[in-house]
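Human: I wish I could look at a protein chain and see how it folds. This is the protein in question:
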Amino acid sequence: MIGLDVMHRLQETLQARKSAAPGSSYVASLYAKGVDSICKKVAEEAAETIMAAKDGDRLHLVNEVTDLWFHSLVLLTQFDVGLDDVIAEFRRREGISGIDEKNSRTGNNLNI
């Protein structure tokens, strides 16, 4: 099993790109363009992930999910949210019914 070490190294690289010159890398240019541009990339990659899933092409799906995760990490790093924060949330939710977890969120206590 591949460890999370590659993801932590990626997070370190993304953090370093926040202070890099926009012309020095793709990620630095995304940070320079701001949150709206980063969000557009996340949405684009999410749509491409959905299309790959509907096509039933496993390799294409893996490629698109990788792009989606990458751009999601760019977005998280923009807000100084780390991979460990996301993992901690997964751990918090582990063993909790999806319905119960969703209902526990503020404003979601309506049983419609």
User: Anything to note?
Assistant: The first helix runs from residue 5 to 17. The mean pLDDT is 90.
